[in-house]
Amino acid sequence: MTEHTASPAPRPHDLPDVSDLVVGVLGGTGDQGRGLALRLAGVGQQVLIGSRSADRARTAAAEIGPGVTGADNAECARRADIVIVAVPWEGHRDLLTALREELAGKIVVDCVNPLGFDNKGAYALRPEEGSAAEQARDLLPDSRVTAAFHHLSAVLLQDLTIAEIDTDVLVLGDDREATDTVRALAARIPGMRGIYAGRLRNAHQVEALVANLISVNRRYKAHAGLRVTDV
């Protein structure tokens, strides 16, 4: 009988050093964006919050604290090395279309979940392009588009009494160097791992799974995340 040997877990030194990168968060005044900015700033990452209103972004940055500054979305996209897109699905296309030039050459991390809601709860939408991440790829041909950070609880991210966020971050993309960079960024947040989960063509089911997690959270009064076993 052949003995099964587990693959070694990803080790931090196998990933690039991203500590000097400036991370922009488009939609950084919303719950998820604000939570990510808070956690990344907490480990020393330089974070730039973007919003339609520069004043609103600067106010949010001041509330989060040291290491975070605010700007309008265009300036955020220009100044950041890596840009997280955390805006509502309804504004996704228009925002990325407007920022195509500013985002050229940047690693773009799309964490938008196309969802609908009715009296039965949340359900997944299917964008014409296949997923929000694939829409971003089509709208930003000169950017390095990845998908990640879909399944994080904004409540847990913003609760600093919780020292570690017990979850894995599924990272998708067609550029391996870019996905390794995003995995490394996720791994900076205590408790998280970044796990490569395939190419962008597989992003729809990752985005759609949020609808299931919403159902889990409602039933069990929880803030559920995901863990991938045996890696």
UniProtKB/TrEMBL annotation:
Domain Pyrroline-5-carboxylate reductase catalytic N-terminal: 23-114
Biological process annotations from GO: copper ion import; NADPH regeneration
This protein's record includes keyword Oxidoreductase: yes
Taxonomic superkingdom: Bacteria
Classification of source organism: Bacteria, Bacillati, Actinomycetota, Actinomycetes, Kitasatosporales
One Pfam family this sequence matches: F420_oxidored
Origin species: Wenjunlia vitaminophila (Streptomyces vitaminophilus)
Alphabetized UniProt keyword annotations: Oxidoreductase
GO molecular function: coenzyme F420 binding; cupric reductase (NADH) activity; ferric-chelate reductase (NADPH) activity; NADP binding; oxidoreductase activity, acting on NAD(P)H
Official protein name in the record: Oxidoreductase
A GO CC term attached to the entry: plasma membrane
UniProt cross-references to InterPro entries, sorted A to Z: NAD(P)-bd_dom_sf (IPR036291), NpdG (IPR010185), P5C_Rdtase_cat_N (IPR028939), STEAP_metalloreductase (IPR051267)
